[in-house]
């Protein structure tokens, strides 16, 4: 009896649950639509077509060289008594660099001068005696033998005078050889001796380099040589070192090929008054030829490829239009092209890869931040 009553009371609860399930099912049969009613237009950045004059250019990376470099050595050799300079010291032309021991070179010079004076005085006496002998011989008092003897004596004295002058030159040279002087202004880059050492003739005592101006050598092709030698506008050179642009001066070009590659070395001179540039430092040299006829130019990112065909996407009134072009030169920052374009046309610089002719686009300002540049943009981690 109790079980039947409990079963009868449970019937209304089961019916209520079934009704609730049916109501929920009826409400879910028509889901809410989440599809956007409109598709957003792609955004692109555009750039105007410009005109640029094509100019042949080549780049070379070469080390800087001293404009002049001398390996200094003594003429007669000797023991170093005084070292007057240090490495990396700037010196002027004619400045003394070191001294050598010598056997009283100034005394030798004084003795050589005295010898010249003594011979000159004897030569004057011999010439007077010869003149007197000729007068007496003309009057019949003197003899021709005396005249011949005095003439021989005069010739001997003239030879002694020449020898005495040679001794004086050697004495002066000994004074110069006792001091090693700088042949030109520059920097002492190497000192290979010390005080007390003996330096033999021909051995290098120190190295002097002229770094202002400083030099660089670059190879030129036959076409570039023709531009220099012919009636064209010639070549222009630009040097880039340490982020600084310098216009060097062409010093000379070799008249014979530097090797089997038919290139000719050109030597350029760069000003270096503060000696900031150092020999051995690498410098980039750009060689420019004469400018040609102006051509249409677009950025490299504006040129798209389909197989072997190049084209750009021109934007007119917010609509994409494909224009086939021929790439003339893509070695510079801009690409020179030929096609049905005009200066001032707007072409797509950056945008979706899937753009097609006839697509409508939204042009974004070139200075507008991209998604990756916007604050809070996600960063890809690899």
What is the secondary structure topology, with strand pairs?
Elements: H1 2-28, E1 43-48, E2 50-52, E3 57-72, E4 78-83, E5 90-91, E6 96-100, H2 105-138, H3 144-177, E7 179-181, E8 186-191, E9 198-199, E10 206-220, H4 222-229, E11 236-241, E12 244-246, E13 249-253, E14 264-270, E15 282-288, E16 295-299, E17 304-306, E18 309-316, E19 319-329, E20 334-339, E21 346-350, E22 362-364
Parallel strand pairs: 1-22
Antiparallel strand pairs: 1-21, 2-16, 3-10, 3-15, 4-6, 4-9, 5-8, 6-7, 8-10, 10-14, 11-12, 11-15, 13-14, 16-20, 17-18, 18-19, 19-20
Helix pairs in contact: 2-3
Structure description:
α2 (105-138) packs antiparallel against α3. It contains four helices and 22 strands. A hairpin with a 2-residue loop joins β11 and β12. It has helices at 2-28, 105-138, 144-177, 222-229; strands at 43-48, 50-52, 57-72, 78-83, 90-91, 96-100, 179-181, 186-191, 198-199, 206-220, 236-241, 244-246, 249-253, 264-270, 282-288, 295-299, 304-306, 309-316, 319-329, 334-339, 346-350, 362-364. Strands 3, 5, 8, 10, 11, 12, 13, 14 and 15 form a nine-stranded antiparallel sheet that branches. A six-stranded antiparallel sheet has the order 2-16-20-19-18-17, with no helix packed on it. Strands 7-6-4-9 form a four-stranded antiparallel sheet. It is elongated. It is of the alpha+beta class.
């Amino acid at each position: 009896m109790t079980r039947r009553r409990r079963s009868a009371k449970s019937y209304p609860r089961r019916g209520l649950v079934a009704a609730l399930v049916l109501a929920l099912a009826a409400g879910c049969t028509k889901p809410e639509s989440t599809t956007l009613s409109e598709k957003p237009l792609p955004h692109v950045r555009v750039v105007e077509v410009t005109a640029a004059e094509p100019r042949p250019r080549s780049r070379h990376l070469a080390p800087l060289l001293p404009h002049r470099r001398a390996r200094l050595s003594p003429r007669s050799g000797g023991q170093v008594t005084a070292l007057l300079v240090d490495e990396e010291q700037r010196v002027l032309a004619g400045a003394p660099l070191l001294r050598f021991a010598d056997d009283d070179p100034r005394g030798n010079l004084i003795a050589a001068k005295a010898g010249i004076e003594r011979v000159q005085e004897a030569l004057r006496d011999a010439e007077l005696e010869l003149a007197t002998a000729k007068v007496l011989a003309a009057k019949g008092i003197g003899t021709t033998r005396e005249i011949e003897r005095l003439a021989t004596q005069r010739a001997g004295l003239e030879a002694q005078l020449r020898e005495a002058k040679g001794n004086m030159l050697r004495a002066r040279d000994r004074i110069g050889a006792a001091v090693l002087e700088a042949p030109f202004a520059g920097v002492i880059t190497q000192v290979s001796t010390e005080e007390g050492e003996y330096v033999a003739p021909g051995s290098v005592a120190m190295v002097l380099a002229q770094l202002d101006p400083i030099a660089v050598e670059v190879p030129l092709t036959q076409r570039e040589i023709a531009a220099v030698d012919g009636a064209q506008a010639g070549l222009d050179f630009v040097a880039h070192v340490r982020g600084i642009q310098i216009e060097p001066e062409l010093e000379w070009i070799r008249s014979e090929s530097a090797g089997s590659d038919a290139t000719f070395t050109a030597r350029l001179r760069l000003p270096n008054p503060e000696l900031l540039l150092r020999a051995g430092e690498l410098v980039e040299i750009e060689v420019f030829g004469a400018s040609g006829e102006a051509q249409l130019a677009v950025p490299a990112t504006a040129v798209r490829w389909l197989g072997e065909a190049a084209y750009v996407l021109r934007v007119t009134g917010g609509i994409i239009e494909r224009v086939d072009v021929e790439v003339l030169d893509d070695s510079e920052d801009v690409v020179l092209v030929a096609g049905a374009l005009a200066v001032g046309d707007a072409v797509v610089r950056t945008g979706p890869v899937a753009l097609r002719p006839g697509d409508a686009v939204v042009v974004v300002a070139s200075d507008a931040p991209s998604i990756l540049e916007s604050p809070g943009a996600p960063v890809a981690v690899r």
